[in-house]
Every structure is written in structure tokens, then in C-alpha cells.
Amino acid sequence: MNQTPAPRALLLDLDGTIADTLPHIFDAYRHAVAPWSERPPSDAEVEATFGPSERECIGRMVPRADLDAAEARFHAYYEGQEHGRRVRVVDGILAVIDRARALGWKVGIFTGKGRRSAHFTLAELGLADRIDCLVSGDDVSRPKPDPDGVFRASDALGVPVGRILLAGDSPADVRAGKAAGALTAAVLWAAFQPDRLAREGADWTCERVDELLAAVERLGVPAPGARLRGVIFDMDGVLVMSEPFIAEAALRMFAEKGVAVRPEEFRPFVGMGEDRFLGGVAEARGVALDLARDKARTYALYLGLIRGRLHPLPGAREFIAECRGRGLSVAVASSADAIKVEGNLREIGLPVSAFDAVVNGGEVARKKPAPDLFLEAARRIGLPPSSCLVVEDAVAGVAAAKAAGSLCLAVTSTFSPEQLAAADWIAADLAHVPEGATGW
Questions:
Q1: What's the pLDDT score for residue 206?
Q2: Which of 153, 181, 272, 349 has the smallest CB count inside 10 Å?
Q3: Helix, strand or coil, per DSSP, at residue 127
Q4: Residue 23: cis peptide before it, omega within 30 degrees of 0
Q5: Is 214 helix (H, G, I), strand (E, B) or coil?
């Protein structure tokens, strides 16, 4: 079990994230392919090839080009005097890198550029000494948006992918990070198409560099002298194991529609609230739902199923009592609707009145893995998220806790320790909480 927080890493794209290189790159590609191209490719046509290293981009752009000669032309132009005149470090990004390093994070680069041009730019901009690893387009077998490079960076940095914040200016960056299981930040300050990037669903969308710095600060480990002041519990899989009952209720609801589904079909949507729990399976099966009516029917079935059969998980009551005895605030933050939250807590003898705050999924705009539930719970108990320990059992919940800026204890009632590796501590249940999880 983890006794201290695992390390974190900031993994940055290079072009358009650290340095505003795109105009120079576009011109370098136009110069590279000029002998084989009937007209200069537009910025959009060049950008559409991005992902692999320069040689493959050139091949995509002008298939009949002499790749050796065209690549040499690219480097000659890219490394010429115009680089020093046109390419600058994005204002404020050095402060982000330095702050991450001050927090004990590793810092890496994951770029589609070839290793030669990436090294050249980092050296020219004086950044080489601030970077712990470089994964270039030459180092991967599959370019962005494939997550191959994120996994390679994770290995090189010695940081689990779930503890990486990947920041980039293209949809391919965000997709690669999400596919790997990393946290993601879409940075818009030099993005080629910022509106398109903003729609990618990154954990953070940063129009300004100081917003990326704020994300790093939020994810940072507690500063020296910080202390635990509150505990926020997820409900299902942490305090009570209700997933089998809600799955059974959902199976019966679908059966009433003449659709036979399997319990394992609900697993990808655990922890995301009943809208997604039911809707995700319905979408996969091509079944039309009247969500309000069908969810109400599912809850009616559910409340009947749990009566006299639902019990607190090992250590739940005792750990809550221990927190109370230490003067800690306690809250529940569940993606479930109020009817299920209240029914569960009442059934296990821990009613809403036993907590300082209870937040349900109907009270926030975004469900997990967005941080909204935990941010709202922290607000209601009057504490900064960084002073709260979140207890979760789901992958989406751990991501939400980390996005909120809280440390996280994951219990393995629903997912394996490997799947929950992004958490700061891992335990079998609340009867076996590591000392470090409450010792700060």
C-alpha cells in the first residue's frame, strides 16, 4: 500500500505549448516540399499532417517528394537564422515548469517533432536543463493521438500515467493523454484551432498560462505545515456496496423493455451517476430511453431490492467515528441522485444528518471524472480541497479527486490496485487505512 504520495509529472507538448513555433514550422515545411509541390501547402494542410516526425509529415503532404532531400531542406530552414528571430518561449511557461519542479514533480516533453529539431529548439531556448526526459516523434512506433508516447514518458520519468498532467495545444495531445489515463490540460494560447481544441473534454482548458500554473498548484502535494482537516467520502463502493443492487435493478428495467443485458456491461460506467450508468449501456445497445421515466423505474426497483439487505462496508462506521473523534469534517459526495444517496445512507444506519455535508449528482453540472462534486463538498464544509482527503473506489472518482486538488485514498472494492494507481494511497477497505493517509 502507498504510504506517501507517489511522484507527479508535468508532460508538455513543445510546439504551441512551450514555444510559439507554429508560424516558423509552417514556413519550414513549405520550404521543404517546394521542389515537389505545385503550390505551397496552406497552414491548415500542414497542420493536418501533424503527429509523426517531420519525415512522415512531408510524405503525407507530398507523397512524391524525395524524403531525404526534403527532410534536409526542412532542417536547413528550421535551424536557420529565422528560428532565433521568430521563435520565443511562451510568456510564463518557465514559471509553470519551475513551480512543478519545486513541488518535486518530474518534467518531460512529448512532441511529434523529430528528435533533432526538438533538441535544437530546447537548446536554443535554454530549456534543456529544465527537462527530465524527451519523447519525440522518432521515439514512438505510433504517433499522437496514440498513447504510446505517454507510456514511454511514464517509464522514463518513473511516474505512473495516472499521476501525469499532459498539457498540449492540439486535439491529438488531449486524446493521447486521455487514452493513456493521464490528466489533461488543453492550452489555447497558441493553438491552431482553439475552438476545436476546447471541445476535446480535457480536465482543464487553459486560455492563459496562469491557468495551467493554477492546475499545477491544485495538484501539488500539501505544502509543509499543511494538515488534514476534512474527509470526503464517495458512497458506492466506499461506505456501502450497492453496485450489485443497482445493476440488478437496471437489468430488470431493461428486461421490462424486452432487452436482456449482462451485469458486466455496466462496469465502464461505475461512479459516473445513474444517467450515464443507464445511458451508456442503452447507447451501446442502441436502445432508446426515456431517461426520467426509466431512471425513476430503476430506483423504484432498487429501493425494494436493498431493503434489509444493504450493510456498511468493513470499517466504514468506525473510520467515520475516528474522523469525528479527531475533529475532522466529514462529507459525502456521490454521483448518484438524491433518492439513492439518501436511501443507501438510511439503510446502513448513517443518515444524511451524520455528515457535515452531502452532495449528490443532481447538484452539480458535471459528474466524475470532473472535480465538481468534490469541489462543492469542500465548499460546503468550508475547507480548501487541498486540506481534504477524498476516499474513492472508482477510476473516474480518483481522477475527479486529483482534478479537485485533493489527496486521495482508493479502496479496492470495485477496481484493482493497478487500475487505481493514480491515488495517493490504496487500501482494501476502511478497516485497513494506511497511517499516512490520515497522518498529514
A1: 94
A2: 349
A3: coil
A4: no
A5: helix
